[in-house]
Amino acid sequence: MRQSSAVSDLDELTSEIVACRACPRLVAWREQVAEERRASFRDEEYWGRPVPGFGDPDARVFVLGLAPAAHGGNRTGRVFTGDRSGDWLFAAMFRAGFANQVISTDRDDGLRLAGAYVAAAVRCAPPANKPTPEERDRCRPFLARELVLLPRVRVIVALGNFAYEAAWRLLGESGVELPKPRPRFAHGLEVTTPRAVILGCFHPSQQNTFTGRLTEPMLDAVFERARRLVT
Asked: Residue 6, Cα to own-chain centre: how many angstroms?
């Protein structure tokens, strides 16, 4: 019964996220990209709206990214779907047992998450992939409600410093006692809080994966640690 209610509540939240137009700069950019399109996707209909989170309503691991990619989530309508970052992320989640397939190309491709939920700190694709702190803060109520609706979450995997700051601010504003001073973000960082353990992970962006700053074994180690923490 709880799962049915949780799914309904998450569906309602999804509808609210998709309808959001709170950030004029992001609204203009996401819609411009959806209209102009990349040449390789010119025959596809872009989503062009805020991108909601998705996953298991009984998730114990919450994966938090930066924002949808202009020609990834902003095109497909599902975060980390249809771009190189998602290829790395879902492959690692598959190897750790959190996903049923290695790759995700569109929101109807059969991908299912088990014990995990994925979302972004900012729900719209930003210009130059750089949302502002103000845009992050306007989106934070959506993140707060997701965590309320996912009470079993015990690990937050923060993909990059931007996501780490978003998670930290959210937990602090929720009244969660946090260590002082705030630990500096790092790959492999582990911060225990009464609500959840925060795990730091370099974002699987091409900037990190192409340069070797983030490798598959490094990404796998984070999700293996997340798995151990919740089992």
From this structure: 19
pLDDT 10s digits, 94-146? 999 999 999 999 999 999 999 999 999 999 999 999 999 999 999 999 999 99
Q: Is the Cα torsion angle 131, 217, 167, 2 positive or negative in sign?
A: positive
What does the block give as tokens for 123? 């729900």
CA distance 194 to 27: 36
Angle, CA of 58, 194 and 115, to the nearest 5°? 20
pTM: 0.96
All domains of the chain in start order, with CATH: 2-230 (3.40.470.10)
Alpha helices in 19-122 (DSSP H): 24-36, 73-76, 84-95
> By three-state DSSP, how is residue 10 classified?
helix
Backbone φ and ψ for 78, nearest 5 degrees, come out as -135, 130
pLDDT tens by residue, 136-170:
999 999 999 999 999 999 999 999 999 999 999 99
